[in-house]
User: Which sequence fits this backbone?
């Protein structure tokens, strides 16, 4: 009655780093030795390379007198001296058609980048499955980067590596925003897809923000320009196709109008100067427009 258990869950490598002991299958608690830590770290890496999202569970004991009676939401929970309870790897398979959609985007000149809060190894494995990454990309060190590394760069350095980045793991909402800003400063037209509240800053900053209509939060929808009603990445290809079609039609219309109107204007000016009469009046020029 004098102690309470505080339970933690989250990114496996971050939770493991705070654990000083581990809970065995027989119910006993053992100190976290360096050999055990390395064994668990290898397990996390193996799961991550298999495109599994690894989550760890831990707990610590705290004296009841240390728990505040008021303003509990402002209390800084103890995150040291944790005891590891276990780890799980969760598979989040790519939706059907995503790989084909990524290839279509690449063929259309649209570079697809993955910015995620997942482990870098997990993000890399999923990017391979989706076709975002290939063996040639992995050879470049700056193709795959951790959010913390990108965040700590200077503004000039971020602009230099932004073009090369294909996968960013362990990113924060601010990292997504910094990447969008760096790409825009380089002169790129940036589109961002997202569904969470933490995606709102990047969605708002992007030239085109695309939020998810089913799983997206209201904050994300309000910050975006387009809402994808079916939550399917393949719909992005349709957005690009229709957008370029409208843009091409506008160009053709302007080109046609300029050609006809300029020709009519030149004829009238030359005729007016040479003969003093205008061959085409407003009624006759109207059908051309």
Assistant:
């Amino acid at each position: 009655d004098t102690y309470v258990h505080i339970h933690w869950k989250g990114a496996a490598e971050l939770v493991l780093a705070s654990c000083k002991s581990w809970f065995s299958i027989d119910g006993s608690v053992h100190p976290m030795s360096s050999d055990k830590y390395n064994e668990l770290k290898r397990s996390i890496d193996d799961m991550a390379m298999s495109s599994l999202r690894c989550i760890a569970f831990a707990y610590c004991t705290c004296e009841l007198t240390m728990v505040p009676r008021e303003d509990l939401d402002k209390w800084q929970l103890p995150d040291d001296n944790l005891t590891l309870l276990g780890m799980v790897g969760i598979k989040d398979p790519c939706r059907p058609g995503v790989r084909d959609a990524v290839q279509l985007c690449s063929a259309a000149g649209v570079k697809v980048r993955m910015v995620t809060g997942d482990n870098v190894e997990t993000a890399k494995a999923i990017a391979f499955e989706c076709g975002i990454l290939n063996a040639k990309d992995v050879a470049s060190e700056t193709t795959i980067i951790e959010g913390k590394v990108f965040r700590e760069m200077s503004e000039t350095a971020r602009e230099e590596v932004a073009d090369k980045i294909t996968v960013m793991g362990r990113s924060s909402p601010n990292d997504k925003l910094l990447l969008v800003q760096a790409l825009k400063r380089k002169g790129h037209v940036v589109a961002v897809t997202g569904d969470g509240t933490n995606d709102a800053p990047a969605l708002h900053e992007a030239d085109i923000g695309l939020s998810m209509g089913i799983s997206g939060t209201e904050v994300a929808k309000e910050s975006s320009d387009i809402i994808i009603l079916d939550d399917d990445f393949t719909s992005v290809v349709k957005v690009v196709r229709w957008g370029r079609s409208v843009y091409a039609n506008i160009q053709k219309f302007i080109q046609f109008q300029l050609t006809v109107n300029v020709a009519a204007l030149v004829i009238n000016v030359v005729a007016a100067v040479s003969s003093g009469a205008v061959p085409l009046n407003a009624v006759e020029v109207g059908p051309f427009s």
Q: What stands out?
A: The two ends are 87 Å apart (CA to CA).
